[in-house]
Design goal:
heterodimer; A: alpha/beta; Rossmann fold; 5-stranded parallel beta sheet; 4-stranded parallel beta sheet; 16% strand; globular; B: alpha+beta; 60s Ribosomal Protein L30, Chain: A; Phosphoribosyl-aminoimidazole Synthetase, Chain A, domain 2; 2 domains; 7-stranded mixed beta sheet
Chain lengths: 377, 375
């Protein structure tokens, strides 16, 4: 991969601070009444906090963070299963970096590693297949993530099958976003009037994949990119629709997202996975919202290969409001633990662990209320 | 991003330094090189004594014994540092250059003229001797650049699998001239915050050669001895406080300075020097250049009235051509325009950033190594 040292003038327009400031002013004029919308994706949460957009929003426009942080929505019992797998002697667990610090009931993967478990951080499921190919040990890849990472996990399983690897398996907790958005809208406490849709997931599902929001549920939504100007263009479009009472799904990220998305990526998922009922942290069980390996790929199913007793479901830590934060019912700073008992150094809930987690993004980027008095954004 | 660039064998990948040719090809470090006997003696002579000429080292005593006059009139600065960088060879340097520069810079930012250094090596059985020679070459040339003498050393060998090629632990001694005082307690409201060049080059260059994450980037480590640059700065301007923003980057050293001074520091995002190549790299990896390591940068806080003199001194040195002002020190309790309601009322010893969009946000310490995110 070659990183462009110069950057193109056209793309740098999406970071132009002057243009962004003008868009913020126009956004204020679109807002004819108080509006609450949700950015579904953790990368948006991160970008909105980091760029300063969160501090520049006009009075009356509220942005809530959604369930689009893969680490945050991984249920505690699933996390405990992953940590139990890591504890098996002779077994190598390969994971994305975000997962290793998430506290399970007893410990995190990182703490398990300190006790002798073999936990490797990889950047792609295909790296885990390569690892299996170069070692005699059993390698289990921890599959988390949405429609963005699931196609690569599918390719990894197919690659392991092609190479007839007997020592690679996948622990799939991949999840699908559209069923989660349906579940959110049906929860009356969420009170979100529109969605900023995830740019990356949309590259796979296409604009059409989210059309049900408007056509079936009457909720407007905009697909945007991740630079400040992208986000502000999307917000202006979305706020305009909300205030006018329109419901459409608009693709404002046309330079990347196509109407029909990426059919080849979806085909890879369809070949390897089938939908299953899934437990989401914070959101609870959502029908047909998870991905499990199809029966023909069961030799690569870590759960079949290494049967584990179901961990007893344990209550979330006392006071942890990750569930409400993930549904947009509470803002991170509304949680009584935020910034006190729960910080990135000593996270209580998953929203504080992953850098995509809403709480971590608010905390790191300083949009924190002063405890001394006054409320913050 | 998944293709290792240099085959993972640990050989210098694009760093350009060729191993010295005196050892027979293929010789490797064995346990006997660490037993204190003949093999150890030979290794020390071949690899170290041939490159480092100070008589105190060549005496091969248990201690380097040195005359004391060099420090007359001044105070001593004494530092120690351990180097475990992975990979050991990276674009723009290697662990040897890093060890000398890191030690020299820790002394220089304390206001000291670096004088002596020591180095202890923990070598893993199986390390090619040519790599060790390459590392020693880099150390010798960095020491010469900085004008310091290596006067004491030690070599130990651990079994294969018990180490990671080569670890180096250094010590360093320098002399602070009489009357020079530096520290965060001297920082005053209105002071300006300066840096001598672009952020994050070392951190990104090392990440670009990590197994599993390798990618092509023109970015090279900025690893360099800063004592010459800092001498020029100290001659031109009063300086309140200096740090080299290594691990944790500029944000981390300024967070510490803010906390220790009890004053709010305000950085301007649009003033931060970040090269287009670093910007492209951090964007792909989802990292923040404010938190990436530098090995050839100094952050200095100077009185506003002396900032012009300080900047021209920095810019007159080859390592300071891109020097600039990146922020200023606020009055205690001062809330700059655009500060979020949330950051108000906490403006004691905090570090603030005015984003390019205008709003001011608080910077905080990151926990753990920054890792690329899942999606």
């Amino acid at each position: 991969m070659e990183l462009d040292a110069g950057g193109t003038p056209w793309l740098s327009r999406f970071k132009d601070p002057g243009l962004a400031r003008r868009l913020i002013a126009r956004l204020g004029r679109e807002l004819s009444r108080p509006v609450r919308v949700m950015e579904v994706c953790g990368t948006h949460t991160w970008s909105i906090s980091r760029s300063g957009i969160r501090g520049a929003l006009p009075e009356g426009l509220e942005l809530r963070s959604g369930p689009g942080c893969p680490v945050c929505v991984t249920d505690q019992t699933d996390l405990d299963r992953m940590i139990a797998l890591a504890g098996r002697p002779g077994l190598v667990v390969a994971s994305f970096g975000d997962m290793v610090r998430v506290p399970g009931s007893a410990m995190s993967l990182e703490e398990a590693r300190a006790l002798g478990a073999d936990v490797r951080v990889v950047y792609s499921p295909l790296d885990a297949v390569a690892l299996a190919g170069s070692t005699g040990s059993q390698v289990v890849f921890l599959g988390v993530g949405f429609e963005t990472t699931a196609p690569v996990a599918a390719l990894a399983v197919e690659e392991a099958a092609r190479r007839s690897l007997k020592n690679f398996s996948l622990f799939s907790r991949h999840k699908l976003l559209p069923p989660a958005l349906r579940a959110l809208i049906s929860d009356s406490r969420t009170r979100v009037e529109g969605f900023i849709l995830p740019g990356h997931v949309s590259t796979v599902l296409g604009r059409r994949g989210f059309d049900f929001l408007a056509s079936e549920l009457g909720v407007p939504a905009v697909i945007t990119g991740f630079d400040p100007v992208d986000i502000l263009l999307g917000l202006k479009e979305l706020v305009g629709m909300v205030c006018r009472g329109e419901a459409r799904v608009v693709n404002a990220y046309g330079r990347v997202v196509r109407e029909d998305g990426n059919p080849r990526a979806r085909a890879a998922m369809d070949r390897v996975f089938q939908p299953a009922d899934e437990l989401w942290r914070g959101l609870g069980p959502i029908p047909q919202s998870g991905l499990r390996l199809k029966p023909e790929f069961s030799p690569f199913d870590a759960e079949a290969r290494f049967p584990l007793p179901d961990p007893a479901p344990r209550p979330l830590p006392r006071g942890c409001s990750c569930g409400e934060v993930l549904k947009g019912i509470l803002a991170p700073a509304d949680c009584p633990l935020f910034g006190r008992a729960c910080t990135p150094e000593r996270p209580v809930g998953p929203c504080m662990v992953s850098s995509e987690g809403a709480c971590a993004a608010y905390y790191h980027y300083g949009w924190v209320p002063a405890r001394e008095g006054g409320e913050g954004r | 991003m998944t293709e290792p660039v240099n085959g993972g064998a640990g050989r210098p990948g694009g760093s350009g330094e060729a191993p010295a040719g005196s050892a027979p090809a293929g010789r490797r470090i064995g346990l006997s090189h660490g037993d204190g006997g003949l093999a150890t003696r030979r290794l020390v002579e071949e690899v170290f004594l041939s490159r480092f000429r100070h008589p105190a080292l060549h005496a091969l005593g248990d201690s380097a014994v040195l005359d004391w006059e060099a420090s007359r009139g001044g105070r001593l600065a004494f530092t120690t540092d351990a180097f475990v960088v992975e990979p050991a060879f990276f674009p723009g340097g290697d662990i040897g250059r890093l060890a000398v520069c890191g030690t020299v810079n820790d002394l220089a930012v304390a206001g000291a003229s670096p004088w002596l250094i020591s180095a202890a090596f923990v070598l893993e059985e199986g390390l090619p001797v040519s790599e060790l020679e390459s590392i020693a070459d880099s150390m010798a040339s960095a020491a010469e650049e900085a004008g310091v003498s290596l006067v004491a050393g030690d070599t130990k060998v651990v079994q294969h699998g018990r180490g990671d090629g080569c670890y180096i632990t250094t010590g360093g001694v320098g002399v602070i001239p009489p009357g020079l005082e530096l520290g965060p307690h001297l920082i005053r409201p209105g002071d300006l915050i300066l840096i001598n060049g672009g952020l994050g080059e070392h951190g990104l260059a090392v990440l670009s050669r990590r197994p599993g994450l390798a990618f092509d980037t023109p970015v090279k480590s900025d690893c360099a001895p800063l004592n010459g640059l800092i001498r020029a700065l100290l001659q031109a301007s009063r300086v309140r406080f200096m740090r080299d923003p290594t691990r944790g980057g500029v944000a981390t050293v300024l967070l510490e300075a803010a906390a220790a001074s009890g004053l709010p520091l305000l950085l301007e995002e649009e003033a931060l020097p970040v090269s287009p190549a670093v910007r492209a790299g951090v964007e792909v990896l989802g990292l923040d250049p404010l938190y990436l390591a530098n090995e050839g940068k100094v952050v200095a806080v100077v009185p506003a009235s002396e900032a012009d003199a300080a900047l021209s001194a920095l810019r007159g040195h080859p390592l300071g051509r891109e020097a600039c002002v990146i922020g200023r020190v606020l009055e205690a309790g001062e809330a700059p325009d655009g500060i979020s309601r949330g950051a108000r009322g906490r403006t004691g010893g905090v570090l603030l950033l005015r984003t390019a969009l205008g709003p001011v946000r608080r910077l905080s310490a990151f926990s753990g190594e920054p890792l690329p995110r899942i999606c």
